[in-house]
Each structure stands twice: as structure tokens, then as C-alpha cells.
Fold:
Amino acid sequence: MSPFNAHIPVPADAAARRAMKPVVCYPVESLVAPDMRILDRARATMEKVGEVIVPPREGNTFEVPKGHFFRIVSVEGPQVGDLNLWNANDLSERFFSGKTRALHATHVTTGNRLWSNLPSLRPMATISHDTLGWYGFDEFGGGVHDVIGTRCDPYTNRLLSGSDYHHCCHSNLCRALAHHTGTDIKAVEPHVHDVLNVFMCTGFTRDTQQYFMKASPVRPGDFLEMFAEIDLLGALSACPGGDCSTSHSSDVAKCYPLKVEIYRPDMALLADWPFPERNGYQLQV
Ligand SMILES: [Zn+2]
Structure:
């Protein structure tokens, strides 16, 4: 409890008020779940058609056509990646980590979807395989692939440390998008958004509910695989925090590259796949 609340009187029925049972904010039973059997059949036929290396403490971009799969692969050593996704044909539609968290959970895995921002609000990608799916939640409440963090950024770093660091994930994502679009870095910065923290192991401390990180359980060969529900432009930063076991926003941690692999399946197997349209709601004046 904040020390500033110590003098706030506790009502007589405080225990009863605290004992009220929680209800899930967004029951997802009405959502049509992705048919993973179709995706499994498709991924059994897929062939690699491209790959991109993300150097340590840098970012890079990649494109994934609708109906293709992509994998973020750990190579060389444990490394966390910060992922941004856009509609490849319209940068104003982008990954919405907050609503993805509200619809699924604090951490995502196979069968969960990455949703786009309002007003589109549709699945951009469906997680089709996660070699860290065994992890679940540990004794500290930590899990992998979170949508609770934001991205390490030079502004927060300056606020907390008073110094400037130019390879935070925010900076890496901005530089990668600027390079991809051939645009000025300041012009593309507003497109960079809260990330999926791939391979990062995080949670909230039990006592103070503060955001924590701990050494990622990822090892070389592990991957997180997704199915592109729309044409995607992705940007991935190999976080300067490395496995995020100690610190970030500096050159202290040991960092490794990440690899992104693009796969094309037999598209005939996806003939009945319900590729999503933008949300149909029309805002009223
Ligand atoms: Zn980072």
C-alpha cells in the first residue's frame, strides 16, 4: 500500500468488499476460435521462402504475406525480442497489445491471436506454435511472451538514469521502420507501438505488483511461430537487455541475434480459412 494511503480510514465492511468474486472482463466464449487443425495441416506443408537476421542491439523489418507463417527463432544464445506488427498496406492498422491482453491474458501462446487497434480490431496473426509452451507460469508469477510491458525506450531511460542510450528497442524499431519506408526517423516514430515481448519472462511482483523481468528460459532452436491473417509488415528489435536477467537500456548485458523465418504453406489447404475483415462497427456522431 502507498504510504500516502496509510491515514485513509478502513470501512467496517472492508473484508466483505474485498471478498467479492472477480469476473472475467471479456468472456471470449462468443469468439470463434481459430481452427488449429487447419493450421496444423497447412504448417505440415510449409516451405521456407525467406529469412531475416536481427543483429544484437539492433532492429530489422520483414514482410509476411497473408496466409504465410513466420517464426522468430532464438540463435546463438538466450535473447529477448520486441515485436511490432502493421498491416503492410496501411500502417495506421497496427498491433494492439492492450486489447490482446484484455482478450487473452498477460502472456500469449499457441491458439492466441494478436489483435489490431481500433477501429479495425481484427486478428493480425494467430500463434501457431510455441516451443516455450511448456513454461506456463513459474513460482514468481512469471510467464513468457508478454503483452504487459511496453518496450525499452530512451525517454524513460533518460528519466530514470539521466543518460542517453541509442539502442533501446524503441530506437531500434524506429530506425528499422525508417529504413524500410525510406522516411525520416521522426516521421515514422509515431507508428512504433507497444510490443509483444517475444521470449521475455515477466510478471508482477506479488508484494508491490511491480513489473518484473527475469532470465528468459529461451534457448537456441526455440521459436515462436505465427500465421499471418493479413499482409504483415513486422519489425523486431533484439533487446539490449539480452535475456533480460539483469538490466536493459545499456551495453552491459550479453546480446545475441534473432532470426525471422518466413514460410509458405500449400495455399489450397487454406481455401476455407476465414481471413478476417476489419471490424464492422461504425462510430456514430
Ligand atoms: Zn528492449
Observations:
- Residues 49-256 form one domain.
- The longest strand covers residues 196-204.
- Residues 82, 151-152, 169, 239, 241, 248 surround zinc ion (CB under 6 Å).
